[in-house]
Design brief:
The complex is a heterodimer of chains A (76) and B (415). Chain A has 3 helices and no strands. With 76 residues, chain A is mainly α. Chain A has one domain. The longest helix of chain A has 12 residues. In chain B, the strands form 3 sheets. Chain B has a 7-stranded mixed sheet with strand order 3-9-8-7-6-4-5, with helices on both faces. In chain B, strands 10-11-14-13 form a 4-stranded antiparallel sheet. In chain B, strand 7, helix 9 and strand 8 form a beta-alpha-beta unit. Chain B starts with a helix and ends with a helix. The chains are: A mainly alpha (76), B alpha/beta (415).
């Protein structure tokens, strides 16, 4: 799951192809991902993992790293 | 009165954070007319200094144009200062309707509705027109007012990478089953000065059954053969469903904005658009003077030509001097310094040399994309630009940045 999310985030969000990210990289608070783009992640998670995460659970704080995302996805 | 210690601390902490991050915005005080040369009050109030202005949105130089000032004076005498009403109670003069018709024709749409600002126009559009079952797909670099406007809507929202048409199409395919789809873009992006790929956007919209929304604030009045905007420049005039724009830039620079578009969409905004229904009618002086700005633009292309010449000269000379300039065709010309500290220092030294241009860094632009944004105006004469260029080169030499690559500029402060 981590690898798929990493690949999706690289493809979907990163403007700089040389940007290194891992599962603990701060994505939103660091400015790599605009918090307004989180809906893309929501759609991807639903399509790829079959989990519909309610919008209120997807916040700039709760989805700031891939590790955090995985923890939330596992709750559903 | 209950401004508790805890609340006082909350706001003070936020302000301190802004200060600590170097994000504090300070306002220079201009003591005369807006134009190519401005007089700025010194920070200790001891006097004022003349600066060449390289950062206004006064693209056609109409902010202090004699014909515009005359129209405004006459409008005050003929129609008074304000309407003291919203439009639908007793705030509509014939000139409001006349301006709506003129803007609609000028922009190539069926109808038009005025707002107090383009920010308000953008705040009205999405909440009123996009429903829960719809999707708004926006370029990632659209203006803050559009982002706020979309936040007010119950429709879903997704983004595509800046001007990446393959990514946009992927998103259109992804949301193919949505009832209403709208592609949302600026015409000219304010931080980079680049122009949206409107021809492709319109083609994709037709192919995928989506509407197109265009904020053309940084183009109306001067881009395209007749100055009608980026859609005219890109060959898609008459093919945009909704256009928002401002009267606060090229069209005189005072205030006000509008939404021009399909008849029923405009009518629904008139019935349901909250920023329209619940805020004051545009002052008569604004409507009449904006009509005069349109007269000037339609009768004479000399200001448009001068702006284009200025823009082309400025871009060419900066590149020749060794600056990294974001290429483009708009009068927004960003000079890339990448490093935020370097950009701030550059702007500070320029100001001391008599040139006013502002540095932008994160979070206004992405990290390591700091820049000095310059904006050309038809009010600039060759002498203004020659002096400004000499000062840019002087500061560039002092900071040893001319001819340097992005990597070299970024490494300067990390040594």
């Amino acid at each position: 799951m981590e690898d798929k999310l990493l690949e999706f985030i690289r493809e979907e969000f990163l403007e700089d192809p040389d940007q290194e990210i891992d599962i603990d990289t701060k994505l939103i608070s660091s400015g790599l991902i605009d918090s307004f783009s989180l809906v893309s992640l929501q759609s991807y998670i639903e399509q790829e993992f079959g989990k519909r995460i309610p919008a209120p659970r997807i916040t700039a704080e709760s989805f700031d790293s891939i590790r955090q995302m995985v923890e939330i996805i596992k709750q559903f | 009165m209950a401004y508790s210690i805890a609340l006082q601390k909350r706001y003070r902490d936020i302000l301190n954070d802004i200060q600590d991050q170097g994000l504090n915005k300070e306002e220079v005080q201009i003591t005369g007319l807006q134009g190519a040369e401005i007089h700025i009050k010194s920070s200790d109030n001891s006097g004022e200094a003349r600066k060449i202005n390289m950062c206004s949105n006064n693209y056609l130089g109409l902010a202090a144009h004699p014909d515009i000032l005359k129209a405004a004076h006459e409008a005050l005498d003929r129609r008074g200062y304000g309407m003291a009403s919203v439009r639908f109670i007793c705030g509509t003069q014939d000139t409001h309707k006349e301006l709506e018709q003129r803007m609609s024709t000028f922009l190539g749409t069926e109808d038009c509705i005025l707002f107090s600002s383009c920010f308000d126009a953008n705040a009205a559009v999405f909440e009123t027109l996009m429903m829960e079952e719809d999707i708004m797909i926006s370029d990632r670099l659209v203006h803050a007012s559009i982002i706020d406007g979309m936040r007010l809507s119950r429709a879903s929202h997704d983004t595509y990478k800046h001007s990446d048409m393959l990514h946009l199409e992927k998103k259109l395919q992804m949301y193919h089953d949505r009832h209403g789809k709208i592609i949302v873009t600026d015409g000219v992006f304010s931080m980079d000065g680049d122009i949206a790929k409107l021809q492709t956007i319109v083609d994709l919209a037709e192919k995928h059954n989506a509407m197109v929304f265009l904020d053309d604030s940084h183009a109306t009045g001067f881009l395209g053969e007749n100055g009608r905007g980026s859609h005219e420049l890109c060959g898609v005039f008459g093919k945009i469903d909704l256009i928002t724009t401002t009267f606060g830039k090229a069209l005189g620079g005072a205030s006000g904005g509008c939404v021009a578009g399909r008849k029923d969409l405009v009518e629904l905004l008139r019935q349901r658009g909250r920023p329209y229904l619940f805020s004051n009618s545009l002052a008569p002086m604004m409507t009449i003077t904006t009509l005069q700005a349109l007269n000037l633009i339609e009768q004479d292309d000399s200001l448009r030509k001068k702006l284009k010449q200025n823009m082309q000269w400025w871009r060419k000379e900066l590149v020749a001097a060794g600056f990294i300039v974001v290429p483009g065709e708009s009068p927004i010309v960003p000079i890339m310094l990448y490093d935020a500290v370097l950009a701030q220092e550059f702007a500070k030294r320029l100001f001391a040399e008599g040139v006013h241009a502002v540095a932008f860094s994160f979070p206004v632009v992405p990290k390591n994309q700091a820049r000095i944004r310059t904006q050309l105006s038809a009010a600039h004469n060759p002498e203004h630009l020659e002096i400004a260029l000499a000062k840019f080169i002087k500061v560039g030499k002092e900071l040893d940045i001319l001819g340097k690559s992005k990597e070299e500029l970024l490494s300067m402060h990390n040594k």
